[in-house]
Design a protein that fits this description.
mainly alpha, 67% helix, single chain, 0% strand
Length: 94
């Protein structure tokens, strides 16, 4: 038996409310991330364009990764990266 692929999911610990109170720009970023989570029903045009030029086998794999049920997980990863950067760089987080 062997393991071919491992996916690890982690969640950073930070206080989003405290980040929002830090400054207006941080508040806008957090609100935009929350809005994107609610509105990501279709893929961005750039990704659709990229999918159009990929070989079929690669396209299927990418579409599976960006499938409707996976988009939320990808956006959560992006949100965590951005919020972690906001919490650890600049302002009161340094």
């Amino acid at each position: 038996m062997w393991i071919e692929r491992i996916k690890i999911a982690t969640t950073p610990v930070y206080d989003v409310a405290q980040l929002v109170e830090r400054d207006a720009l941080t508040k806008i970023v957090v609100e935009s991330l929350d809005q994107a989570q609610n509105e990501l029903r279709t893929l961005p045009a750039e990704i659709e364009e990229m999918l159009g030029v990929l070989p079929p086998e690669v396209r299927r794999e990418v579409e599976a990764e960006w499938g409707r049920d996976q988009r939320s997980a990808v956006l959560n990863d992006v949100r965590a990266i951005i919020l972690d950067a906001l919490g650890t760089k600049g302002g009161q987080g340094s």
